[in-house]
Amino acid sequence: RIAHNHARGSTRTGELTMADVKANDVAGALMQNSYCDTKIKGIASGKGNVETGSCFDQTLPNTFRRAGAHPVSRAALPKFSASTMSHRWPTTKPGTSEYLKRGDGEKIKRGTMKKMEAPVGPPKAGAFAKRDNPPNSQFRKFYERGDLPVAVKFLGSKNVISWKVDVEKLDFHHYLPIFMDGVREKEEPYRFLAVKGVEDLLKAGGQKILPVIPQLIIPIKTALNTRDPSVVCIVVQLLQKLVVSAELVGEALVPYYRQILPILNLFKNRNNNVGDAIDYGQRKKACMGELILDTLQLFETYGGEDAFINIKYMVPTYESCINL
Fold it and tell me: In the chain, fewer beta carbons within 10 Å around the N or the C end?
């Protein structure tokens, strides 16, 4: 009943609208921001992956790395002691030169004989740390093989995709998951082609998008599990476009909140605290906290009567944006 009342209530005012989401050019902003950082600010661009060396080389297949995989901890762990039937932290073994000398008894009484060792505690969880993101996406494989009907078209002000065929005639079950899998790429031209391709497909898809929703969950989850802020911000903006792309898409995403929302709940409070200063970089949409909040509000608005209660289950600190 509560969720049904939320769904029947009026939408929020003064927040992100469908027109704002559709007008947001994610791929164009990526190219513009990277150009400004490199040419104007003088920030060195990241090096290419070891597997490629250049964006024109063929990527070597790597089956031993998985995107978003849990890192192996090398920290010291407590060992089980059979005599005490408990776990005990290992202690450092004394060296051959560490023997008692004359006058060491007084030092032992004063407690100055040994240096104070830092207490050994559990290792850091690293919940916010970046995880492995190898360049082995399906999009990169298909693009280097020449199976995708796309190419970069260089214009005077911005770059666009030159489609070899009509976008509306494409098989969305085949191409949309491939382009969505390439969103986690960080090397050009793969990143631009993947992000812009998803935008063009969502813009021209219409009713073809709804049946493809189950195939999009694994690429979206894989990209979010990398926990890379630059990748997460792109995925969140594309999720906004996905929700408003066609009717009933928001409701179709509700059963998959358990795969999508855990990472959003993790970075929900990652805001830029600038105090009383002005953040002139808002147009870059690099603040994860604001993007995630807008995305959750769109999920609730277009997700039907069950959206709020499912969002609240996965993100307990979320508050409704619907005015009853």
Answer: N
d(CA 213, CA 259): 13
Provide the pLDDT confidence category of residue 259 given band limits of 50, 70 and 90.
very high
Residue 34 is which amino acid? Answer: S
Lowest-pLDDT choice from 49-53, 73-77, 115-119, 249-253: 49-53
Q: Is residue 267 classed exposed, middle or buried when 0-12, 13-18 and 19+ CB atoms within 10 A define those classes?
A: buried
Is the Cβ–Cβ distance between 161 and 152 less than 8 Å? yes
Q: What are the pLDDT digits (tens) for 94-116?
A: 777 777 778 888 887 887 776 66
Compute the distance between CA of residue 62 and CA of residue 76 in angstroms, rounded to an integer: 30
* Dist CA 164 CA 106 (whole Å): 86
Q: What is the pLDDT of residue 14?
A: 47
Confidence of residue 295 (pLDDT cuts 50, 70, 90): very high
- Would you say 11 and 322 are in contact if contact means Cβ atoms under 8 Å apart? yes
- C-beta of residue 302 within 8 angstroms of C-beta of residue 248: no
Distance CA 169, CA 173 (A): 12
User: For residues 80 and 316, what is the distance between their CA atoms, to the nearest angstrom?
Assistant: 37
Whole-model pTM: value is 0.78
How far is Cα 151 from Cα 158, in angstroms, rounded to an integer?
A: 14
Report whether 24 contacts 30 (CB < 8 A). no
Measured distance CA(186)–CA(172) in Å, rounded: 24
Of 314, 257, 299, 243, the C-alpha closest to 11 is 299
User: What is the rounded CA–CA span in Å between residue 150 and residue 103?
Assistant: 81
Average pLDDT over residues 137-155: 86
Half-sphere CA count of 3, side-chain side, radius 13 A: 14
Rounded Cα gap, residues 287 and 272, in angstroms:
6
pLDDT, mean of residues 126-150: 87
